[in-house]
Design brief:
Elements (H helix, E strand, L loop, with lengths): L2 E8 L2 E8 L2 E8 L2 H11 L23 E9 L2 E4 L3 E2 L8 H14 L4 H20 L3 E2 L12 H16 L6 E9 L5 E8 L3 H12 L15 E10 L4
Parallel strand pairs: 1-4, 7-10
Antiparallel strand pairs: 1-2, 2-3, 4-5, 4-6, 8-9, 8-10
């Protein structure tokens, strides 16, 4: 789980910001005098002017599986801010301060990381589904099938060109690309390698006249698939 946590502490309030992926929550609470006194005792042992220069152990804001943490403390009319650091492995000079900040944070925060993580995964899944709605695959786990199977497809591609050739449009092999949509319909027919305008047009008409295919499956769900088929136009002797 990768997230971000920021805590702002002042003599009378605590402000907490939490984010997991794209899901974020903020809370603002009154800080008790007892808790502020505890923080003040620790703060007085730390050189707050150097707080911003304590680098994260990793040296970067990219720590898989952990939460980035930062905090700001309003103390004696000045605001001191830390850099972002690994919440599970703070700089040694920050450990005492991090420990008390984390303790205060836990006592005031009512939004669990687990809940945020669960919500974020749900949102991420929904976002992925939205992104995949119009995605066109070229390879899928279960390929789409022509209505009636492979032999029916061969028969379809053999008989239709013969009808077109009766109108004297010539002969040759056309490679045509098209999309089998999630509902099995065919769309977006396009010539990849053609013969001439008349035959190419006939090839597109053949693809567009196809009945619905049996939809494919990717991770158990139907998706759009791009396919390429050859259509042979051959004059009979």
């Amino acid at each position: 789980m990768t997230g971000e946590m920021a805590v702002l502490l002042s003599p009378n309030q605590v402000f907490i910001y939490k984010r997991v992926f794209f899901n974020e929550k903020t809370i603002k609470r009154h800080l008790s005098k007892k808790d502020w006194h505890t923080i003040k005792n620790v703060v007085e042992k730390v050189n707050l002017d150097s707080l911003a220069y304590f680098e994260a152990p990793s040296g970067e804001r990219g720590i898989d599986g952990a939460a980035y943490a930062s905090f700001e403390i309003c103390f004696e009319d000045s605001l001191y801010s830390s850099q972002y650091y690994d919440g599970g492995n703070p700089h040694k000079k920050l450990k005492d301060l991090d420990s008390i900040v984390y303790e205060i944070y836990n006592s005031y925060d009512r939004i669990s990381w687990e809940k945020l993580n669960k919500l974020s995964k749900k949102q991420e899944k929904k976002r992925e589904e939205e992104n995949n709605k119009d995605m066109i695959y070229t390879i899928v786990e279960v390929q789409p099938k022509f209505n009636g199977g492979e032999q029916a497809l061969l028969n379809f591609l053999e008989n239709r060109p013969k009808k077109a050739l009766k109108n004297g449009k010539g002969e040759g092999k056309v490679f045509i690309q098209f999309t089998v949509k999630k509902n099995g319909t065919v769309s977006d027919a396009k010539i990849i390698c053609g013969v001439n305008k008349k035959i190419d047009k006939a090839a597109i008409e053949i693809i567009e006249s196809m009945p619905k295919w049996e939809s494919d499956k990717q991770r158990g769900k139907p998706v759009n698939v791009r396919m390429v088929l050859p259509i042979v136009f051959k004059l009979e002797n």
